[in-house]
Amino acid sequence: MIDPTERWRRQHGFDAKAAWAGLLSFADLPYTEDPVELQGVDVAVVGAPMDDLVSDAPGTRFGPRAIRAATPTATYHLETGVDWLETLRVVDYGDAPVVPADPVASHRAIEATVAEVLGAGGVPIVLSGDHSITEPDVRACALHLAGPVGLVHFDTHTDTAARLYGRDLSHGTPMYRLVEQGHVDPARYVQIGLRGWWPEQRELDWQAKHGITSFFMRDVSQLGIGEVVERTLEIVGAGPAFLTVDVDVLEPAYAPGTGTPEPGGMTAIDLLWACRTIATRVEIVGADVVEVIPVAGGGADLAALAANRVVQEILTGLALRRR
Ligand SMILES: [Mn+2]
Asked: Are the beta carbons of 247 and 307 closer than 8 angstroms?
């Protein structure tokens, strides 16, 4: 286990490490790639740096590093008064050993890495990659629990196509596959933020047949995020559930760095509040935040910033739940 802040503490007598210096880990967390050192952790952050299965702009392979780099300098949450680091033992477990141009091998590596976290009793929070990574993430959780999980899914798109561009594996198919494989209970599956031009009636018919619940953006704007989250909590109910956040659910102004942006999306304030509330009130067994493409050439990396805060809010929610 490497504590990236240790050298600074040794030299100066206090935690003085600047965000840009030293080893890059999420929130300067202790870093390990050794499954033995995972024993006793509450949460482990894992990167899934792949983008082989996108249907449009690539670049999410660079997402995990960008999300780690967008970490604020503290873990104390102003609004709740909670410092998640005081309640939870969290480590950065590094990246899954993905293989470029081999999405099957990459998915296998992601599933194995997530399974190591679950095996040690921790909650995995997986960073970026394209949305296909939710399939190995959730499958690892369902296999670990020996039964299907609920799913809370923030996204512009349903990602429930049976095939996309004639392919089974895609960032447009993971939710179809997870339901068909029996890893997600469709009666406890809620989508929030749908809008735009995809999918089509065929996919919506399949969803209706399985009893999947969808809240469109017009629901979020007309009912308000509070009511949408209350209804979501009712549908997901008690029992284990996975939280997946596609940053393209955000209005592109808040997260321009994503592969399939769609105008008319959620505000950051609504998404962050919703993620914290769901992590507080649902039995979250795992989470991911996906489809983050860092901005090339510097500047404000808004999608990575939003994704980083999504994780921070989930951690705050998990800490609140623990209290
Ligand atoms: Mn998606």
From this structure: yes
Ligand 1 centroid – CA 100 distance (Å):
20
- HSE-up (13 A, CA, CB side) for residue 226: 0
pLDDT digits (tens, 9 = 90+) for 268-310: 999 999 999 999 999 999 999 999 999 865 567 999 999 999 9
How far is the centre of ligand 1, averaged over its atoms, from the C-alpha of 79 (Å)?
29
From the CA of 284, how far away is ligand 1's center (Å)? 19
User: Given CA atoms 174, 175, 177, 182 in this order, what sign does their dihedral have?
Assistant: positive
Measured in angstroms, how far is the CA atom of residue 12 from the centroid of ligand 1? 45
CA distance 60 to 70: 15
- Name which of 14-28, 96-110, 245-259 the model is least confident about: 14-28
238 Cα: distance to centroid of ligand 1 (angstroms)? 25
pLDDT at 104: 98
140: CA distance to ligand 1 center in Å? 19
Among 3.30.420.40, 3.40.800.10, 2.30.30.60, 3.40.190.10, name the CATH number for the domain at 6-146+243-322: 3.40.800.10
In angstroms, what is the span from residue 9 Cα to ligand 1's centroid?
Answer: 41
C-alpha of residue 247 to centroid of ligand 1, in Å? 8
Residues 6+ positions from 184 with CB-CB distance below 8 Å: 138, 142, 148, 149, 150, 151, 175, 178, 242
Q: Show the tokens assigned to 16.
A: 């003085």
Annotated domain spans of the chain: 6-146+243-322
Cα 158 to ligand 1 centroid, rounded to whole Å = 7
